[in-house]
Amino acid sequence: MTIVEMRGIWLTTTDSKVLRSHQRIAEAMDFLAETGFNVVFPVVWNKGVTQYPSQAMRQRFGIEIDPRSFGRDPLAEVVTEAHRVGLKVIPWFEYGFASSYNLNGGMLLAKKPEWAARDCRGNLLNKNGFEWLNSLNPQVQEFLMSLVLEVVKNYDVDGIQGDDRFPALPCEGGYDQITVKRYCQEFGQNPPENPKDGQWLEWRADILTEFLARLYREVKAVNPNLLVSMAPNIYDWAFKEYLQDSATWLKRGLVDIIHPQIYRRDFKSYKSIVDKLVREQFTPAMLPKLAPGILMKLGSYRISPEYLLQAVEYNRDRNIKGEVFFFYEGLRENNNALAKALRSGPYAHNAKFPSLSHLSSNSGSDSFSIWQRLLKFGRL
User: Strand pairing of 130-132 and 126-127?
Assistant: First the structure.
C-alpha cells in the first residue's frame, strides 16, 4: 500500500550554509531523499533581500539578490536538484511583512519610509526585535504580491509558503496615517488606543485575510496546481498578537496546507496543542491540510530523538499525515542522529507527497463522506 504523507523540512540562510553553493544544495537534496523526505521549503525572502534574482526588488530598491548569492540563483538550483531526486519545492517567504531585525527598518524603510508600520505613539513598529512594514498598506501588499508572483511565474515550483510574518502584523500596529484614515471613514472615530480591542483586532485581521484571499486567487490563476502553504503561529494566540485569523483562512479555503508552529520543547506540551487543534480548529474535512511545524533546532536547543519520534507517532495517532521540521541542520548534527532516527522509524518507507485532491478531502473515509453530506444539507 502506498503511504501518502507530507514530510517537509525548512532550508534557512541563518545558521546554515546549504544555500551557499550549488554543490551543497545537491548534497542536501540527495540526503533528504535518502532520509525519506518529500518536500523542501527553501527561504527566498528574508532580511530585506531575495535568494533569487528579483526584478521587483531591482526596480524598487536597486538590489536584485542577496549579495552573498550574487552571480547565482539559489532558488533555481534548489528546484533543479530537488526535482532530480523527486522532492517537491515550496519557496518560503520567511520575513513576510517584517522589514528588518534590530536594524531600525533596514534598507527597505530607508528607501520607503512611508511603508513603515506605526504603533499608537507613532513609533516604528518593533516586536521582539523585528521592525515591520505596514501590511495594511495597499502599496506594501502589492510589493509582497509582486515577489510571490514573480517566483510562481518564473520557476518550476510546487507552491509558495507564508508564515508567522506573512500575512501578519503585530497587534500593536495600524496607527499609521493611512490606516487611521481608513478606520475613521468606516467608524467615524479614531482607532482605540487599546491595540487588543476586539473590533479593532478583527477589522485589521480581516484586511490581512482579504490580502491572503487575493494572493490565493492570483497564485491559482498562474497555475491551479500550485499549493498555497501557510505556517502561522498557533491560533488564537496568533490572532490576538499578530492578526493571523487562521481559523477563517481554513473556513474560507484560502490555504491548501497549513503548518502551525508547535515549537514546544517537550512532548507533553506538543501533545496538548495537537489535541487542542484537532478538537477545536480542524474539522474532518480540514484535517488532511494539517502538517504541524516541529522545532528541531534553535540556538542551543536540540530536540531529542525520543521526543522527535513521539511527536511523529502522535501525529499519526491523531490522523495527521505529515509534519515539517525547523530546520535542516538539525538532521545533520551528531553524525546525522535525528535523520537516522527518522529513517529507521517512521520514515523507513518512502511516502508519496499528497495531491491537491488528498489535501482537499479524505474521500476514502465513509465517515468523512457522511460528514460532508450533512454539511451540504445544512445538518451541521
Answer: antiparallel
